[in-house]
Amino acid sequence: MIIRSSSEFSNGKPLHLTRHNKVFLGFNVLVGFHRSPNPKPTLCRLNRDPHHRNLQRHANPPLSPAMPSTSSHLPRILRAIDDSPEDSIEQTLESTALDDLSPKQQTVVLQSQRDWRRCLRILRWLRSRTENYIPNPIHYNIVIRSLGRSRQWDDLRLCWIDMAIARVPPTNNTYAILIDVYGRAGLVKEALLWLKHMRSRGLYPDEVTMNTAVRVLKDAGEFDLAESLFIDWCAGRDELCGSDSIGDDDDPATGISPKHFLLTELFRVPLPKSVEKSGPSVRKPKLAATYNTLIDLYAKAGRLADASEAFADMLRTGIAPDTYTFNTMIYISGHRGDLSEAEQLLGKMDERGILPDIKTFNILLTLYASAGNVKAFFACYDRIKTLKLRPDVVTHRIVLHSLCQMKLVREVDKMINRMERFGVVIDEQSLPVVVKHYVDEGMIEKANGFYEKHCVRDGGISPMNYAAIIDVYAEKGLWEEAEAVFLGKGDAIGREKHVEEYNVLIKAYGKARMCDKAFALFDGMRSNGVWPDECTYNSLIQMASVCELPVKARGLLVEMREKAGFRPRYETFSAVIASHARMGLVSDAVNVYEEMMRLGVEPNEVVYGTLIDAFAEVGDVDGALLYYSIMEESGLPVNQIVLTSLIKAYGKVGRWEDAQELYSKMMDLEGGPDVIASNSMIKIYTGLGMVQEAKSVFSVLRDKGQADGVSFTTMMYFYKSMGMLDKAMEVAQEMQRSGLLTDCTSFNNVMASYVTNGYLKECGELLHSMLVRKLLPNAFTFKLMFTLLKKGHFPIEAVDQLESSYSAGKPYSRQAVIASVFSLVGLHDLAVEACEAFEKADTFLNNTVYNAAILTYGASGNVDKALNTFMRMQDEGLKPDIVTYINLVCCYGKARMIEGVKRIYSRLNCGDIECNESLFKAISDAYKDAGRRDLAALVDQEMKFNFFMEQESGSELDVEDEELDVEDEELDVDDE
């Protein structure tokens, strides 16, 4: 009988089947088959049965090497079938006389088919040749495997029915195939039901069938059930307890439910009268494949000791392990961290004459890479080449991933070049890894080149891998490179972009705070046929929150809910609430919270903490306490962040006793109060002048090693405000020793303390440390430097000139200030180094820069270079000013060039140079440096005469009491 398709049955008449009546069709035939009066034929009956004779021919092929005459035509037949169009396959089979082949040759033809349709049509054609063809289970097994692996459950059902009609009983191999294909389809429970079905037919599972079922359970993660099945089989029991715990995955859209089909077959077919109730009393596995499955099961279940015991039992039983066995044991040994044992197992393979395959070395490469053993890793890879094994896709992926992880740039380049030389295409999963490797190493151009060469390929790569590459650039803030990948992808291969790619580019824009670009990209998504998903909205809302755009964040939240139909999660609401809170829009933050509650989205402690902190920032203690009580009533745990916000709220209104009580309550929490809470208490105490209390909290933090830059800074300025300058200096020095100077602000705080206490050279050294760390001085840093120059009695005219040039943003004005500071505090080499930056400049320099250079070179003793700089200044057409003459006089004095000093002094007396007190003092100092104190006395006398209307003390700028305004530099502990 020909096997009918799912749309027709007997007599060639079309029959419209429903979901349910399809299930029952054909099973009356099965019932009749199983009601045979003699379900267990005698040997005599079997020998007379043509089906049995067919099986005998299968089982006992001719021993002679000579093949039937048709064997020489088999390759030609296979080629003819392969070349045949779909609509003429039957004609091809007719012309090739397939039915004249032996059953074994027909089996070869069926096995060679890669398409389930051809395989099924060939079997149907063979079944139609009733005069020549005798059905046998091997042919049905091949077709069942092809249909099952293609998930053609309707046709598999019909094939099973036809198998019963043809009086071909299913064998252990048939059931093993059914269990395998159902397991591969994820229908684990249905696969196990086939075990019960075969027992209902009086068939006990053999070792292959049992091993298949155990493997299916192992791959599904049902380790305990798999072990139970193995133990029951060994003990001769076939009960399978607990199979009902495995879930169902039926999909009505795929046609007849495979579970429905199987259950109908199980419960509508009556059991034969002579069902074997149990198997042999005790069984031991005899196949290496069974032990391999068992060892792998224990390994994946994390029971490494049991896996080793199974391996030992395998050896005791005398079953020779194969390559798969050793591969699994090598993996287990390496997973336990015992690489030496893994290497010994590799040696055992050589002793037993078992050749390792490429998977063996893939496992070893992974283990060596995980252990960071670079030498062994390369030795293992070299051995692959020695054994002339061909690396597969997994090998190349492991090697590339491992080399990138170990940051071996040259080796990565060599590996890529080798793959290119042998025509090996880098697999998709490795592309983002290599791009990330180059980007992490700062080799952006190389990453771009790799992308252009390997990622823009025919057919393209998957959207997820494009998104991963864009994300690599996004994580580093390289939005231009991310944008280039996004825009270039579609143009290069003509494919549409996916929502994942839009999402990561939005992320890149968000990290770069380029909100306009992100919103423009979002607005253009729909016009390109891409609809934003929940991740898109979450990223945009988060970006709008960070960029202080609360109104935009709120609008996106409404659009996400009302237009897109997504239900925002509490994280999304939290971002919008935080956005309003940071802007001081407390009432709007409360409105978002109330909307969140109306939608039934339960807030967590982060949401409540944000609201409490928002009320604390504006000093609304009652509002903070209200949401604190709501949080407690909700049963959410009160954490340190919430309590810290309440402490802050109490501090805003001066309720230090309440803050202290909360701080004491935090002592009972696990780990005690954190550094943020402690810093808040220090700020409260210092604000109220409570020295001992602030000192006590600071000491505890310091003893625990938890004091951070905020702790030290707060105490430093507290001591300074109390007039305890020595204490402030001690804290500043300790802060420097503690390695807490990590940013410009922390450096500024310590330098301010040094300047206040007159430690000018130490301040200059700290400035140098700051520059070495590539930290650019900010406006407050320069304010400190100007104060330092004044405290160091730098000519006030020079300070004013430097400050004016810096404020105007003139070229190299910053370097001039830094060089002047270094020169003043005696760090002459550093001062000269700072001057080299503008000495080599091709741009036009102003008087300020030249004056700083003359001062620097003169102070360092390089008078010739100072005078050359002065001549260069004149060549540029710049006229010397008061600061220039002051610096020149200093140079002449250090060089004992008395005539040069006299010349400037003469011009000052003549009126060619404007009378200036700083210049008089510089001339007097120059004479003293040159050893002419008599001339210095005359200059001092004339200076007193010219400035007799002013007291001498008034001529000096009193900066002793000058206060450094550090309000905008001091870290605000409330914002941590």
TrEMBL record:
Ranges: PPR repeats: 171-205, 287-321, 322-356, 357-391, 392-426, 498-532, 569-603, 604-638, 639-673, 708-742, 743-777, 846-880
Superkingdom of source: Eukaryota
One GO BP: chloroplast-nucleus signaling pathway
Cited InterPro entries: PPR_rpt, PROP1-like_PPR_dom, TPR-like_helical_dom_sf
GO cellular component term, pick one: chloroplast
Keywords, comma-separated and alphabetical: Repeat
PROP1-like PPR domain location: 511-632
Disordered, as annotated region: 953-976
UniProt record similarity statement: Belongs to the PPR family. P subfamily.
Name this polypeptide is given: Pentatricopeptide repeat-containing protein
Organism in which the protein naturally occurs: Acorus calamus
